[in-house]
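Database export, one record per block. Field names are fixed; values are copied verbatim from the stored entry.
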Amino acid sequence: MSDQAERLRTLVRQLHGGEPSHRGRVLTVTSGKGGVGKSSLAINLALAIQRMGWRVCLFDADLGLANVDVMLGLTPTEDLTEVLRQGFDLQRCLVEGPLGLQVISGGSGFYELANLSDPQLERLLGQLTRLDDLFDVLVIDTGAGISRTVLSFVLSSLESILVTTPEPTAITDAYGMAKVIFSRRPEGQVRLVVNQARDAAEARAVAERINLVARRFLGREMDLLGYLPFDLQVREAVQAQVPFVLANPHARVSRLVAAMAEQILGARSRPLGFSGLLERMAGVFR
């Protein structure tokens, strides 16, 4: 067992001496390639879940290049640098967004945040576990790709949403991300979302293309959670810094996101609480 794995297990025991009183769900929204609409989906999905009466925290884990706060028109007064440097409580970084959604910004333009050491990452995950009693769902918007920091969040969650588009490069990178997840976290669930698809048929074709290779070489496949069509309202919402599920709640794209939220919340799951982040990370770094 590695020293890091032992440190993580010790931290879990320190944070939760007994059974936690509440067990929330952790959803990571990730992608193999940047520019596929991952953050937009994470924001609107988090709001759709919040609107259904759940207490949601959206954590922008694209550390050092975070933009969720900008997309929501928020101005955080505290950032993660203070949490990591001075040990501030992560709750000081919570900013209230639309519908009461709580947001934690990963900070932008800070080299330190983009290159966390193992102890810093452990400290951050440890702080996230303290939010377990405050929220029902933690949505983590990771960075794109398979960097160590991105994978630390993705592999620490049992429920991941993998965003892609019909572009060949995005499809290739989505499979690459799925391969890493399934090889390192076999028990994890990965759902696909195809963004900017012409229609449901194209989304299904993209999912089948990825799953064809995944079944052959990994012995696994991913469920298609849903798709989002190309819609100018999405671009306009980003420019206006107003999520499209709020700007145009009855638009087709908004209804599709609401359907994804209902599917996620209706699916059988075994919430392990936010402390599961540390427990699973310890397993990753055995």
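Remark 1: The first strand starts at residue 25 and ends at 31.
Remark 2: The chain has 13 helices and eight strands.
End of record.
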